[in-house]
């Protein structure tokens, strides 16, 4: 089997769909994280010194998910650029 994705149109389509889904994932996570940040800092009027451990864990979890999604997106993007 050849490594050329042009000869595997279904795999190429799947990678393009995955890339689009990862963009939506990243955008959604950033919006949710920004909304939580706004709620904690503006609505509840807390500064970072007054964050609870749950707030820190939540922001860390969202940042970790964004990082994983970005790394996956970079890998898929490189694969698509290399083979198309």
User: Strand content of the residues, in percent?
Assistant: under 5%
Mean pLDDT: 90
Overall helicity: over 70%
Task: Give the overall silhouette.
Answer: elongated
Question: How much is the radius of gyration in Å?
Answer: 18 Å
Q: Which structural class should the secondary elements be placed in?
A: mainly alpha
Could you spell the SSE succession in H and E letters?
Answer: HH
Contiguous low-pLDDT stretches (5 residues minimum) are none
How far from one another are the termini?
Answer: 16 Å
Question: Describe the biggest sheet?
Answer: none
Number of helices: 2
- Count the beta strands: 0
Question: Could you write a compact summary of the structure shown?
Answer:
With 84 residues, the chain is mostly helical. The chain has two helices and no strands.
Defining traits:
mainly alpha, 79% helix, 2 helices, elongated, 0% strand, 84 residues
How would you summarize the topology of this molecule?
Elements: H1 9-43, H2 53-83
């Amino acid at each position: 089997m050849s490594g050329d994705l042009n000869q595997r149109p279904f795999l190429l389509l799947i990678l393009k769909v995955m890339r689009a889904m990862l963009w939506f994932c990243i955008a959604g996570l950033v919006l949710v994280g920004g909304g939580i940040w706004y709620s904690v800092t503006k609505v509840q009027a807390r500064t970072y010194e007054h964050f609870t451990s749950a707030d820190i864990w939540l922001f860390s979890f969202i940042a970790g998910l964004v990082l994983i999604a970005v790394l996956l997106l970079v890998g898929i993007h490189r694969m698509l650029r290399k083979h198309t």
